[in-house]
Specification:
This protein is mainly beta. The chain has one helix and six strands, in the order H-E-E-E-E-E-E. Strands 1, 2, 3 and 4 form a four-stranded antiparallel beta sheet that branches. The protein has a two-stranded antiparallel sheet with strand order 5-6.
C-alpha cells in the first residue's frame, strides 16, 4: 500500500488596512474697502476735452493699490456727452487680483442722482496686469 500525498495549500485572508481620512480646507478671504474720490469743481471739469481725465490718489483696498480715473466727457468721440466714464486701475504689481467693484457717482449732497450702469455688476473679475483698467 502506498500512501498518496496531495499538495496542501493554505489560503489566508486578511482585512484591508483602513486608509486614514484626510481633509483640507480652502478659505477665501473677503476684504471690503472703500475710497471716496471727491472732485471739487466738477462743473469746470466738464470743459475738459474728450479723453482727458482726472485721477484719484493711489489708495489701498484688499491688500492692493488702486487708482480711479474719471473722464468727465468720456474716453472717445462717440461717447454720449452727458455721460461720464470711471475706471478703476490696479496700481500694485504682483499676482492676479480677483475683485468685485462698485463705483457710484454722487451729487454734492452725497446722494445718487442718476442711474449708474456698470460692467462690474456680474463680477468678480480677475485683473491680471499692473495698470489694467
Amino acid at each position: 500500500m502506498s500512501a498518496s500525498s496531495s499538495p496542501s495549500s493554505s489560503l489566508s485572508w486578511s482585512a484591508p488596512t483602513p486608509t486614514p481620512m484626510t481633509t483640507s480646507t480652502s478659505v477665501t478671504e473677503t476684504v471690503i474697502g472703500s475710497h471716496l474720490f471727491n472732485i471739487s469743481g466738477y462743473s469746470h471739469s466738464k470743459g475738459m476735452a474728450i479723453g482727458q481725465y482726472v485721477k484719484s490718489d493711489t489708495f489701498n483696498a484688499g491688500g492692493h493699490s488702486w487708482v480711479i480715473y474719471f473722464y468727465p466727457n468720456g474716453t472717445e468721440a462717440q461717447d454720449n456727452p452727458t455721460y461720464v466714464s470711471l475706471f478703476i486701475v490696479l496700481a500694485s504689481e504682483g499676482t492676479d487680483v480677483r475683485a468685485r467693484f462698485e463705483l457710484k457717482v454722487l451729487d454734492q449732497s452725497g446722494e445718487e442722482r442718476d442711474k449708474v450702469r456698470t460692467q462690474f455688476d456680474s463680477g468678480p473679475y480677475t485683473i491680471r496686469n499692473h495698470g489694467c483698467m
